[in-house]
């Protein structure tokens, strides 16, 4: 009976470790997603055209065409999209004080179409 309890404890420890690993992974994905949404908000505020935004998105998807096995593909797509958005020339042409000021909307992550 004691041996069974020890084995159950080990199984529970492994499950806890897997849950913690998944929590960290989801936290990283959430941070990356927030970064991408903030960049999209900045571009929307700069009135980027739908065509230019579409080109960025298609370029991202083209870069991530060959899927990597596992859950890392989502993070790879978000990371690539963040890089593409960051490289957008419109973000670098805005005045320095505008680039550093916080968005004036009540919820900066809401993107209207």
Radius of gyration: 20 Å
User: Structural class, from helix and strand content?
Assistant: mainly alpha
Question: Helix coverage percent of residues?
Answer: over 70%
- The percentage of residues in β strands lies in under 5%
Main pleated-sheet profile: none
Shape call: elongated
Number of alpha- plus pi-helical segments = 5
What is the number of beta strands?
0
Question: How confident is the prediction overall: mean pLDDT?
Answer: 81
Give me the strand/helix succession. HHHHH
Report the span from N to C terminus.
62 Å
Organism: Cettia cetti
Protein name: EFCC1 protein
3D architecture notes:
This protein is mainly alpha-helical and 113 residues long. The chain has a domain of 63 residues. Helices cover 73% and strands 0% of the residues. The longest helix is centred in the first third of the chain and has 44 residues.
Give the SSE layout.
Elements: H1 2-45, H2 50-63, H3 72-86, H4 89-93, H5 96-100
Helix pairs in contact: 1-3, 2-3
Give a quick set of tags describing it:
113 residues; mainly alpha; 5 helices
Brief sketch in words of this structure:
This protein has helices spanning 2-45, 50-63, 72-86, 89-93, 96-100. With 113 residues, the chain is mainly α.
């Amino acid at each position: 009976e004691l041996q069974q309890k020890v084995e159950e404890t080990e199984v529970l420890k492994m499950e806890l470790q897997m849950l913690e690993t998944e929590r960290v992974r989801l936290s990283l994905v959430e941070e990356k997603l927030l970064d991408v949404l903030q960049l999209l908000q900045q571009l929307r505020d700069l009135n980027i055209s739908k065509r230019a935004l579409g080109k960025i998105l298609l370029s991202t998807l083209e870069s991530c065409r060959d899927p990597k096995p596992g859950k890392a593909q989502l993070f790879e797509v978000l990371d690539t999209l963040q890089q593409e958005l960051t490289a957008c020339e419109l973000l670098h042409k805005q005045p320095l004080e505008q680039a550093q000021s916080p968005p004036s909307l009540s919820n900066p992550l809401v993107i209207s179409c």
